[in-house]
User: Fold this.
Amino acid sequence: MNKKIKKIGVITGGGDCSGLNAVISAVTKTAINKYGLEVIGYLRGYSGLYTNDFIKLDLKAVSGIMHQGGTILKSSNKDNLFNYALKDPDGTVTYKDVSDVALKNMEEEGVDALVVLGGDGTLTSARDFARLGMTVIGIPKTIDNDLPATDVTFGYNTSLESITDALDKIHTTAYSHDRVMVVEVMGRNTGWLAIEGGLAGSADVILIPEIPYDLNKVAEKIKERDNFGKFFSIIVVSEGAKPIGGDVFVREIIEDSADSIRLGGLGALVTKQLQELVPSHEVRYTNLAYLQRGGVTSQFDRSLGIKFGVASVDLIMSGKNSRMVIYKDNKIQHVSLEEVVGSGAIGETSKGGNKQVDPNGDLVNACQAIGINFGN
Ligand code: F6P
Assistant:
């Protein structure tokens, strides 16, 4: 046991997802019950580490939070302390490495180790703090399930439940009004949410980034269903899908974010284009957007989050540093942050490192076998 560790700090960075509170709860309970440590949680990601804004995490603070979505510590997907945006009084912004301020804050507070929950940007900084001598353990999180380093991430399962539930509900109006319902889901540059949610939610068409689409094929599928006597269709559109020969639909570029490209909104375009191809139907659009990130955490995500949280404290106390907890081959394992950060293994899109849906794999085959069309 690493007797030098007395206090642990916890940080949640990047977009929120279900399961974060389960991790925070498990880290705190394990640290206190198993090792007699103290725990604090920095607020709003790394910015709390810079401003020294934190709350004490004791058994009472984490009681009853495990099932809640989001993060009680709040989050930020912008603040990189190694290139931090500082505003001068005249409004000009300069970028500066303020990691020394964070290290000083932790030293003064007696924080000996950090557990950092986040995606590629957040975990890159986690690695950089480890390089500066801090003990750091990373925990990957995303609803997109696109990280090659781990078989699954918490958050994904709860999102799938929300998507499936939404599709069940949307069927009601689709059927009653003989409509074509376009439902957009998240997932960034991978189609996991769309294909798994669409399969369980009885979609008729699923458009994913891994299989470029032709809307004429989608229109053919709708007409085929009409001829069969099914006068409604459900079209699930992944935000990162693209037409054959075309590009991804970018909604916004956020310069000071680790992954600056924001997707979302493709469904509206698909709806407009499809309406012209199937004028006999009303084509309507629903973007599930942040409904997929919120809500009550599923059993699977609670359980995985707890296992990740416990493992992170066990790693710290066994003297490990700069590791990331993963779930591979049905067991909790850990890999080097040095190896995974920036390699694409935790989904860094600019390195093309996402775990993709295999267009010839079991999942696509299963969908096709039961009649789901991919717009190809
Ligand atoms: O990576 C998780 C995710 O929810 C993506 O599915 C989505 O594209 C993105 O985050 C949205 O990010 P933001 O919260 O910045 O809109």
